[in-house]
Design goal:
The complex is a heterodimer of chains A (189) and B (199). By secondary structure, chain A is an all-alpha fold. Chain A has helices at residues 8-23, 28-38, 45-60, 64-74, 79-86, 90-97, 108-117, 122-143, 161-164, 171-188. Chain A is elongated. In chain A, 32% of the residues are buried. The N and C termini of chain B lie far apart (56 Å). The chains are: A mainly alpha (189), B mainly alpha (199). Chains A and B meet through α1, α2, α3 and α8 of A and α2, α3, α4, α6 and α7 of B.
Chain lengths: 189, 199
């Protein structure tokens, strides 16, 4: 944001504009204005390059759930095997497989057993855990916005991962995950 | 390529076909980017982050959206709303972060003050703006204006010039729009005062 000076009516109108768009059944009028006035050309080259690079990484990097499911197929295993080896409950394991759990909430000893039973290296797990973290963080913020339900639509990675995502990541939970991964690394070495 | 339908876009995302990324960037990227930088004062890097978040949400939600989205128009609107919400969140985040360093200015004599105290101002932000009584009153005051006046106020608020607005509001000169804007601000003040005094 370039200008920190605020005129109060301007500010209030801006807030009204945002909420009107987000709550609109069909914001096509505004979209038409944008099409008319902002043009249809290309993005600046550097922005286009950065954006496509970041999105490609985000699209191609497996989450922990995806990675475990791939391993399960590759090693011809099933969920019962992981339950037995890791001593995690079926519900928890299901949550991990479906990327519904922040890993730093799991007991580290049990998670280590899961990682070892799936024959995953620390570097593979680290990438996948961060991918899951950003996925959950993004979806959590998105789902807290009131336009998400698609009635029409009503209602928000360190492979250098952090800089590939935005300012929305909670620093507290990120710190917790960094500490958790450091401990996992020690446990696995 | 630029005319790819939403079903194909979602299908490619689900198949993790990265070709879809450049298609999305070409169809929506420039317009959204310029909207963020020109109209809402975001830097290039901030606007890039907004685009990334928007498309990333689309990637994460593709499996659900393919069942829920019903038309191209629906898809376009959905994506635009995600993007606008990213800007809104950023805007709100910055305002709250810079609470102590923000100074208030009056742009000209035609602009009224909703309130002069920090308490009143932060009332916009410290509750969700959709629920804020001041915002509800302002929206009600706006809705008592003609559609043209309302559109004009909102377009000017997004930094559209009078010259640009003449392209949207055909048949009106820049000078006519300037005068109309000043009158619309006066009307808004009267409507807002009326609603405030009723309380």
């Amino acid at each position: 944001m370039k200008d920190k000076s605020i005129e109060i009516t301007e500010e209030a109108l801006k807030i009204v504009f945002f909420s009107e768009i987000i709550n609109a059944e069909n914001p096509s009028k505004i979209m038409n204005q944008i099409s008319m006035l902002e043009g249809n050309g290309d993005l600046p080259t550097n922005i286009f390059k950065n954006l496509t690079n970041r999105l490609s990484v985000a699209m191609q990097t497996h989450t922990l759930g995806e990675l475990l499911r791939l391993k399960m197929i590759k090693l011809n295993l099933n969920e019962d095997y992981f339950i037995e080896k890791s001593r995690l409950s079926g519900t928890t394991l299901n949550g991990i497989f479906n990327d519904q759990i922040q890993i730093s909430n799991l007991p580290i000893v049990l998670f280590r057993k899961l990682v070892i039973s799936a024959k995953l290296s620390y570097s593979e797990v680290e990438k996948a855990v961060w991918q899951t973290f950003y996925k959950l963080d993004t979806l959590h913020k998105f789902n807290n916005v009131d336009f998400i339900q698609t009635r029409f639509a009503r209602k928000p990675t360190s492979f250098g991962l952090k800089e590939k995502f935005s300012f929305f990541v909670s620093e507290e939970t990120e710190e917790a995950l960094i500490r958790y991964l450091n401990r996992l690394k020690e446990e696995m070495s | 390529m630029n005319s790819m339908q939403y079903t194909e876009v979602l299908d490619k995302i689900i198949k993790k076909d990265t070709d879809v990324i450049s298609v999305l960037s070409k169809i929506y990227g420039k317009r959204f980017f310029r909207f963020a930088t020109n109209r809402h004062g975001l830097s290039d890097a901030e606007a890039e982050d907004m685009l990334f978040e928007t498309f990333y949400i689309l990637i994460l939600k593709a499996n659900e959206l393919i069942e829920q989205i019903t038309s191209q128009k629906h898809f376009d609107s959905y994506l635009f709303k995600i993007f606008v919400n990213q800007i809104r969140q950023k805007f709100r985040h910055e305002r709250l972060k810079n609470k102590e360093s923000i100074s208030f200015v009056r742009l000209d004599d035609y602009i009224f003050e909703v309130g002069t105290s920090y308490d009143t101002f932060w009332d916009f932000y410290e509750v969700d703006e959709i629920e804020s009584p001041k915002i509800i009153q302002l929206r009600a005051a706006l809705n008592n204006l003609s559609q043209t006046d309302k559109d004009l106020l909102i377009l000017r608020n997004q930094n559209y010039t009078y010259k640009e607005i003449t392209k949207i509001m055909e048949g009106k000169t820049e000078e006519a729009l300037r005068i109309r804007y000043m009158r619309a601000i006066e009307k808004l003040k009267l409507e807002f005062d009326k609603l405030t005094n009723q309380k």
